[in-house]
Amino acid sequence: MNQISVIDESGAGSVIPTNILPQFKVYTQKDFDRIPQLKAVPSEALFEMKVVSSILPFRVNQYVIENLIDWSSVPDDPLYQLTFPQRDMLPPQLYQQMATLLEQKAPRDQIQALASKLRTQLNPQPSGQLEMNVPLDRNGKRLNGLQHKYRETVLFFPTQGQTCHSYCTFCFRWAQFVGDEDLRMASTDTVELHNYLEDQPDVTDLLVTGGDPMVMKTRHLAALLKPLTEPKFAHIRTIRIGTKALTFWPQRFVSDIDSQELLDLLSQLVDAGKHVAIMAHFNHWREMDTPVSRQAIELLRQTGVEIRSQGPVLGHINDSPDVWAKMWSMQVKAGIIPYYMFVERDTGARQYFEIPLAKAWSVYRDAVKQLSGLGRTARGPVMSASPGKVEVQGVTEIRGEKVFALRFLQSRNPDWSYRPFFAQYCEKATWLNQLKPAFGEKEFFFEREYNEMQHARQSH
């Protein structure tokens, strides 16, 4: 009989048969009434969940329900806010339209038609993802499962990885999960990916993203990644895998039927000379404060991969310096490298989660002040806007004018990167397009060239 070692809640190790390992159990929009913990939630709140989840995707698994959420603190518990829909995640007019249909018990096709219409008002593909990021192959064909925004990095969206163990309510990739093929980025063609990478000698990094690639069986990941160890891909030095499995299903690395196969694959890639980085999504320190999560982190580190952490600063979840300071401190102790604090993107439920840039910077600054240098590797707060990743470096006063100091960490034109620029201070601004140039300038230094890029892509 197959066996595997696991750590129980007390921290003690044990060996158990694989046929009695924790089984993945998931709940979706049609299953609210089957979640025992929701029986204590008022019926009005349950109806509101059904309304919101008719438009924005909902998916949660048993591990999250039983191990991460403090049900005595619902609805304010941050992990509950992270995974269960709330009424104000939708603009009032959109909410009311869908609520009316559900109250009338309208036919399913009518509900779906309205949902599709309302989703278009939520900016489902922000930052020029479909218009400007999709590359062309050697024959001029669009490669719809790829994005190539920055010179050194290509993103790949494998079809088998376009779901998650649970969905985050703030997710900027929510349009991947609503069943609309016109909004979805995905590819089953790894040959197209490999051919494209072979033709791009300036590309050094491949980011496998989703969804969550760690929902994939290891054999599918191996078919995608192992060919990159061939000599013709020597220029691909770094393989990144974006995942939230360390928080939403750490059993993927510990006790799933092909967990050891996955760890062996990662070790093989490292042994072949690739820098393998697990881009782990964390939003609160409690997500990594379980025995199985700690064990997953340790097993991953033993393969030689690096684990880097990233996530947005969010109202209702983590807009507190102490939460970030504790999370980054715990990550450094566990051998995880803090990487990015993002700003909530301008899509989906953004109005519920976004906070002003000034507050985001204050949260970041007051958090890193509590850390040693090893905890100050996280860049932030950072907006992943269409021109590039814009970091808010601070608020200052220059020639009597209060301003935001900004810079690109990555940009569509590499020459824009790390060049300081300034915007008028605005207490309410939450995104780049709400900022105006400081010192009487008519436009930011990059705007004219960026507009030309947009025009060129649209006329292609």
Task: Report the radius of gyration as a whole number of Å.
Answer: 22 Å
Question: How many extended strands?
Answer: 15
Strand content: 15-25%
Q: Let me know the average pLDDT.
A: 93
The assembly state of the depicted protein chains is: single chain
CATH structural fold name of the largest domain? TIM Barrel
Tally the helices: what do you get?
A: 16
CATH architecture of the largest domain: Alpha-Beta Barrel
C-alpha geometry: globular
Q: Measure the end-to-end span.
A: 59 Å
Low-confidence stretches: none
Structural class: alpha/beta
Which CATH class of the largest domain? Answer: Alpha Beta
The biggest beta sheet is recorded as: 11 strands, mixed
In total, the number of domains comes to 2
Strand order of the largest sheet: 5-6-7-8-9-10-11-12-13-14-15
The CATH homologous superfamily of the largest domain is called Aldolase class I
Portion of residues within helices: 25-40%
